[in-house]
Design brief:
332 residues; mainly beta; Porin; 16-stranded antiparallel beta barrel; 3 helices
């Protein structure tokens, strides 16, 4: 009888413990919420030229970014992204994959620290403000004043809602070349937001020469822009000395762009660029470019932008060229 009583008591204790055990099993499941998200970005277009560039037409896959980002904790995040695009090193019809980002980010009390293969600070704000990277790169990226990503450490601090500052220490070779030569790049910037939607930024950097026979490269940029729900307008000035590490190869340029938003699905945009080189050392590439188009948002992830472009070269006797583009963007 005693054995039966002990057995009954044991079974009752097990029965009472099972819900608690089940509750303990469920607790970790609730904590294991999704903290990561995929990074998928695709830029494509159809284009056709007019006049002397009438034969330049076809479809193009400009960029494909594929990666993943994961929030480790409240203050830490890691990100890895592959970039598949064109390269000057291979035939135009081929695509090469690069690691665009492999970084860790830490944020706390106004501080932001990025380390690894990360986005540079040279023209990140301008690119974000322009907001049409899938149509055309921002000025410094388009005309190769610098790279959009590099092996680097960046530190930014927001003093208050009006002023923030950032510094960067990078290899200076860009994300397609991982420190193939000596030299580092140092840069610093200050961003001021005196009023809501209004932003002013100044930035300067120096890229050390990779060899004694070459010259270091200096970059200076100034930006001013205003944006609200209905429209945006901005202008930037850029200057570079010793381009391609050649003494005296100075160049500069301005870019102005604006947009009007009619509703959440449709808007218009325009942009004008001018690139100049000192003593015309880069005359074949100097000139003015103009873009005028419309943007349509098809749901949350897809954008279409039909636009017209003109290029007016500085070289005397060279013909102007015009294009129609239909750019498409898919961003997840």
């Amino acid at each position: 009888m005693k054995a039966k009583r002990w057995m009954a008591a044991g079974l009752a204790a097990c029965a009472m413990a099972m819900p608690a055990m089940a509750g303990n099993d469920e607790a970790p499941a609730k904590e294991e919420t999704k903290k990561g998200s995929p990074v998928i970005t695709i830029f494509s277009d159809f284009h056709t030229g007019f006049g002397n560039v009438n034969d330049n037409r076809g479809f193009d896959l400009d960029r494909a970014y594929i990666g993943y980002q994961y929030k480790l904790a409240k203050e830490l995040q890691i990100k890895g992204v592959m970039d598949f695009g064109q390269s000057d090193d291979v035939d135009d019809y081929q695509r090469i994959g690069y690691i665009k980002n492999a970084q860790i980010t830490w944020k706390r009390d106004g501080w932001t620290l990025n380390a690894g293969l990360t986005s540079t600070t040279q023209f990140k704000l301008q690119e974000d403000f322009w907001g049409k990277r899938y149509v055309m790169k921002s000025f410094q990226d388009e005309y190769k004043f610098g790279s959009s990503a590099d092996l680097a450490v960046t530190v930014a601090y927001r003093f208050n809602k009006y002023v923030s500052a950032d510094v960067i220490l990078a290899n200076g070779e860009g994300y397609k070349k991982v420190q193939v030569k000596d030299g580092l790049q140092y840069g610093a910037g200050v961003t001021v937001t005196p009023a809501e939607g209004f932003v002013v930024r100044a930035y300067g950097s120096y890229n050390e020469a990779p060899e004694n026979s070459l010259e270091g490269i200096a970059n200076v940029a100034a930006f001013m822009g205003y944006k609200n729900r209905s429209f945006s307008v901005a202008a930037e000035y850029n200057w570079q000395s010793n381009a391609k590490n050649v003494k005296g190869n100075d160049q500069s340029g301005v870019s102005a762009y604006a947009s009007v938003q009619f509703n959440k699905c449709m808007g218009l945009f325009g942009r004008w660029d001018m690139l100049m080189s000192k003593h015309d050392w880069n005359e074949e590439s100097d000139g003015m470019a103009g873009v005028l188009g419309a943007e349509f948002k098809l749901g949350k992830y897809i954008k279409l932008a039909p636009n017209f472009r003109v290029w007016s070269p500085k070289v005397k006797g060279a013909d102007e060229s015009g294009y129609f583009y239909l750019n498409a963007s898919f961003v997840l």
